[in-house]
Amino acid sequence: MSSNATPRVAPSGATEFRDVATAHAPFPFGRLALWLIVAIVVVDFSWIVAKNENFGWPVVAQYFFDPIVLSGLYVSLGLTVVAMILGVALGLVIAIMRMSNDRLASGFASLFIWFFRGTPLLVQLIFWYNMSTLFPQLSIAIPFGPTLASWDTNSVITPMTAAIVGLALNEAAYMAEIIRGGLLSVERGQAETAEAFGMTKGRALRRIIIPQAMRSIVPPTGNQLISMIKATSLVSVIAMADLLYSVQSIYNRTFEIIPMLMVAVIWYLLITSVLNVGQSYIEAYYGRSDRRNAGVAKTAATTEEASH
């Protein structure tokens, strides 16, 4: 008895049998050529930009760490942090009101979102900055009664106040919808189970619903944070000394417009790049359960196929 296996021969006129164990993917010549073309274009463009004297790279290097520029950078970062904290906190309240069965609460939340998402952020900032035109005095008074306290509007609504209020309220409108979408992504049975165990709606929201909704809320919140960094450049129109306003104040003296704008562009790119990396890690952290479930499902399917 011979130990050599007889090779399988295809019948005459039939399709030739092929051993899939020796099959291999064809070499991706097209993809390689595309990568080479893109690389050549990128290198060529980078060389043109680097050698173009009109960009004023020596001026960019001179002012990149200038105290005025760094001061504006700190203002932009501070505005981003404060506006995001206030926006997320207020957005959570608006989202809960939007989902409420109370028509007054849901109606107010819908009106808030409609107004602040429907008007440009730049217009809102200018409006807050010029609040004294409409209301020269800000007062606390009893309706149709005496005034308890009063302040001059210009002393209250400074460029900093107008920037924080404008950015925070605009961000709250967007965060309300993001948070509402995250809360709706949690199965309704979770809340019903919590209520069956005697939890109040508020406690169930804090302990059960919000932690599970974070997986859907955090990634778009990261996008909003990156957008907020760039949106702070709009406060330059209300004389707020942010990063863009700082470089403008320099090129108004030196007339080096393009180099100073490149300083701002590079700083914005550096900050958003760091935030992008952080967002990737956060998304990976909150996506662990999906990958774990996918791995379990794949293992179960493999085991089932092997058993058959």
UniProtKB/TrEMBL annotation:
- Compartments it resides in: Cell inner membrane; Cell membrane
Give the stretches traversing the membrane. 32-50, 70-96, 108-129, 225-245, 257-282
According to its record, how does it sit in the membrane? Multi-pass membrane protein
Q: Where is the ABC transmembrane type-1 domain?
A: 73-276
Question: Which keywords annotate this record?
Answer: Amino-acid transport, Cell membrane, Membrane, Transmembrane, Transmembrane helix, Transport
Its family remark reads: Belongs to the binding-protein-dependent transport system permease family. HisMQ subfamily.
Cross-referenced PANTHER family: L-CYSTINE TRANSPORT SYSTEM PERMEASE PROTEIN TCYL, MEMBRANE COMPONENT OF AMINO ACID ABC TRANSPORTER
What's the name of the protein? Amino acid ABC transporter permease
Native source species: Neorhizobium turbinariae
